[in-house]
Amino acid sequence: MSWRTVIIEGRCKLDYRMGYMVVRSAEVKRVFLEEIAVLVIENPAVSLTGCLLEELTNRKIRVVFCDARRNPVAELTPHHGCHDSSARIKAQMQWSDGAKAAVWQRIVRDKIGKQARLLRKLDRPRECALLEGYVDQVQPLDATNREGHAAKVYFNALFGMEFTRSADCPVNSALNYGYSVLLSAMNREICALGCLTQLGIFHDNRFNHFNLGCDLMEPFRVLIDGRVVQSRPEKLERDEKRALWSVLNDTVQINGTRQTVLNAMRIYARSAIDALNREAPDDILFYREL
Length: 290
Prior knowledge:
This protein is an alpha/beta fold. It folds into 2 domains: 4-76, CATH 3.100.10.20; 85-289, CRISPR-associated endonuclease Cas1, C-terminal domain (Four Helix Bundle (Hemerythrin (Met), subunit A)), CATH 1.20.120. It has helices spanning 50-58, 85-93, 97-121, 125-135, 146-159, 170-192, 211-216, 221-231, 238-245, 261-278, and strands at residues 4-8, 13-17, 20-24, 28-32, 36-41, 47-48, 62-66, 72-76, 251-254, 257-260, 288-289. The strands form 3 sheets. Strands 1-5-7-8 form a 4-stranded mixed β-sheet, covered by helices on one side. Strand 7 and strand 8 form a beta hairpin. Helix 3 packs antiparallel against helix 4 (125-135).
């Protein structure tokens, strides 16, 4: 089972040989492809062979490309996620409005509940109680925007009353970078399930290639929030980014078992897609922090 997040930061050449990714620079290193879940190419000077790209695609390894500032800018996404992707895409296009509304309601409730639990850990009882009250108020498709109301209370409690998500500051840079890590991992699972990331259940931006990924990743955002509020970064450089990538290897509980966040995403994504196909929102498997 794949589990490693491999980050390539220096100038080198990557190629494929007998099941391994070969990293050729001053030294030659090999990484077993079966172990890689996410490959991050941080340096635009890195070159990859076509043979390696083919193997990465066939093995459904998520490849994230970064710009000169080492910020994610693109991903390698396979056209065919599984053997019956045509049937799965057809089913995805037939998801009913009622099923999508009910599933989004469940996702938002779980997200706000997790936000409330983080505030409880941080000894913010008043704001925690307010968010817990919002959970039961979430309607299908979150018609009254409890998510938005909760977000204002939540982020002010985490980072202060002057904080806004639109501000140009290290905290927002870290949050955005961490969310991009989660989105990349979630897109990988959606593609592996044979669905289109473009067709969301709530997000519906014609210019967003990852609407469904943006929908399904929501309950995992709090993991990044907790890491950022703990570290309070004053900059976003190599060490800070490594810490955010490491969230994927944290351990959580899902469906009665302990799993890495990456594996929990796989279990959760499959259950969410199945819930949409069967119109059974109560069947979604959400993770819980230990």
